[in-house]
Amino acid sequence: MQIASKFTVAVHILTCIEIFGSERRVTSDFLSESTGVNAVIIRNVLGKLRAAGIVETRQGSGGANLARPLNQITLYDVYTAVDCIDDEGLFHFHENPNADCPVGRNIHKVMDGRLRSAQQALENELKSTTLADVISDTRKIIEEE
Amino acid sequence: MQIASKFTVAVHILTCIEIFGSERRVTSDFLSESTGVNAVIIRNVLGKLRAAGIVETRQGSGGANLARPLNQITLYDVYTAVDCIDDEGLFHFHENPNADCPVGRNIHKVMDGRLRSAQQALENELKSTTLADVISDTRKIIEEE
DNA sequence: TAAGTTGAAATAACGATTATTACAACTTTA
DNA sequence: TAAAGTTGTAATAATCGTTATTTCAACTTA
To answer: CA of A64 vs C1' of D11, distance in Å?
Structure first.
């Protein structure tokens, strides 16, 4: 049970756009090569990132670029953009608790707040890094190679 | 994409054991009734909770009870007991990044620490509540009904 | 106009979760 | 000791979400 790879793929995509965008056109085919993910899936993810105002894409001529500065895109922004998490929340509730049982009819209410807090802790952590951090680390590692 | 309901089911089970354990034998059939989850699945979850030293079960005569005090069982203990999270971590990495691409061969290294931190923030939050808290809230709500 | 690209729909492949069926092993009690 | 009820477990099916694939219209540039 894992958070869909759309999220890490999206970060990969954005990193490529920043790193290679100045030298070449970053197309869905190019991104498919780099990520190992099907080009249609890439276009799908790019579509969500575009809808969230994170990238711009060009139909026809092709290619994608960032729509705002690196330090104004957090991992949380990406995470919500590709919506790998339900409206229901990160934790899945079994759906048919017995309303005739005092525990069954209240367990949801009792757990909800605590689970939401846990999810929020995760999300706050994602808010604390921006793409600028990711790119900076990436450039450092590449230079050291 | 959600964390498997095994987790919330496990909490439901443990709550039932505490609340009803003094009046009756808490069998997998009874728990199946209360949760709405198949009795075999219940026995499966109980098996994991037993392996983690959280409950004891009785073959033959039937029934389950808690193996340690309520305030010594955190939500995190339950979460790890039913292992709804991979060894790989909460976040799923696409598996075939291109080693010939400088981004492809480094993205994992760059992201790993940050994703682990996010996961840990979630888990720390789960460590901060014990079943004693959950039961106390449950009893309060039941009394107010 | 030709070539290359995006956007999007439809469908298939795959994997993980949950449900179901079946039964051996065990405990209690009549 | 036999019957009834239960746990533990394996095997299999149903279901659902993710990812891959195929296909094609719309678009842009040369």
So the answer is: 50
| Contact list, B142 vs chain A (CB under 8 Å) | 102, 106
CB of A58 within 7 Å of some strand C atom: yes
* Amino acid present at A136: S
User: What are the tokens at A98?
Assistant: 């017995």
Q: Mind listing the domains of chain B with CATH numbers?
A: 6-144 (1.10.10.10)
Pick from A70, A57, A72: nearest CA to A26:
A57
Nearest to A36 among B88, B94, B121 (CB): B94
The single-letter DSSP state of residue A64 is E
Residues in B closer than 8 angstroms to A94, CB to CB, are 5, 8-9, 12, 35-37
Whole-number Å distance between alpha carbons of A126 and A21: 25
The DSSP 8-state label assigned to residue A37 in this structure reads S
Q: Tokens standing for A3?
A: 């958070």
Tens-digit pLDDT profile for residues B70-121: 999 999 999 999 988 888 899 999 989 999 999 999 999 999 999 999 999 9
Contact A111, B11 (CB under 8 A): yes
Beta strands in A25-142 (DSSP E): 55-57, 64-66
Whether pTM exceeds 0.85: yes
Helical ranges in chain A per DSSP H: 6-20, 28-35, 39-51, 75-81, 107-127, 131-144
Return the H-helix or E-strand segment holding B80: helix B75-81
